[in-house]
Hints:
alpha/beta; 12 strands; globular; binds ligand V47
Amino acid sequence: MSATRLNPTLPDQTAKPPAGGAAELHAFQTDDSRLRPIHEKVLAGQRLDAADALALYRSGDILAVGWMANLVRERMHGDKTFFNVNRHINPTNVCVAACRLCAFGRKKDSPGAYTMALEEAFETAASGYSEAVTEFHIVGGLHPDLPFQYFLDLCAGLKQRFPQVHLKAFTMVEVAYLSRRAKLSIRETLEQLKASGVDSLPGGGAEIFADRVRHIICDHKIDGDQWLETARLAHQIGLKSNATMLYGHVENDEDRVDHLLKLRALQDETGGFQTFIPLAFHPDNTPLQHLPKTTGMLDIKQIAVSRLVLDNFPHIKSYWQMMTAKIAQISLRFGADDMDGTVIEEKIYHDAGATTPQGMRREELERLIRAAGRQPVERDTLYRPVTRTETSVTVTV
Ligand code: V47
């Protein structure tokens, strides 16, 4: 593969890091000889291949792997660490998919199943509004009866009531399901969602692309190729999206590398991904609850490897809800440049046993970022800086 930069819109990775950055302060040291050629490539801004990615996963030298990831992170963003003030809205937990990875979805008539009437969804949106959110993150189950029009009305109604709030709505899996139910092509479905107010798509549902793994953890979801094709179409019609990877269950290192390389290849083609978010599997209350939880080493390693391999992704997010605020904070020195947001009322991981709070105030996010020696930057969903005063919120376009 070429050693040159592929995405000219990204900061130059071969440029010198800012004065005082990691490369100037600390010399690279490792007792793992497999990392030396990778270090040479990272210094030269060259692309890593599958063998490099595997060597990173298999190295025990987390400090050396993190040193390289931090070097790349500081080249791209210096000390900046992004966060946003957002609210999650999960309109329904009714889901036909019954994925083994999930503790959130319910069958229609099961205890705990819910579906919000539109007015209820609008009230939920308004209830976090005191923080002046800039984003609604909207995802839910694959409901067998809700018509496509419900989702169009939901987005149009939110846009009408909160015109300045960005709607990051519906995973590729939900889009593909809605297209089947509405008997529309994926492109038409995306176009109608966009016309109703959807501004971008979240990164969920990607899980692990390898079929062997998908059959075990989410066998009724669209397959990896369909997820990628839906993302491709979204990018083609001008909708940015994120991408995720669910790790720490039955996948192996090769599956993770395959997942990262497929995302990188699509990003070369479309440039439509903004952020990559590795999601640590939470087994509690899922059919896979016999599996152990991820370790701190794996969580940090996953962030670092993602930063090093996904050289064409502008941002790597360490989602504090998933990682815990403490691991997310440390990961800001291991490749991550984003901590996600205030969230308010997270449900998907809390149903799966997450012990983190369901939301965090802006001041607390800023405090964590500063305590990591980084500079907090409030962003909107498209990574434009947000400035706040007592009475107004301004996005710098
Ligand atoms: O797709 C479900 C995961 C995802 C579990 O785009 C689980 O900015 C762990 O994608 N343990 C949804 N993970 C969340 C998501 C997301 C989150 C934050 C920011 C963004 C973004 C996207 O949650 C699902 C699935 O991969 N998930 N169940 C579980 N038991």
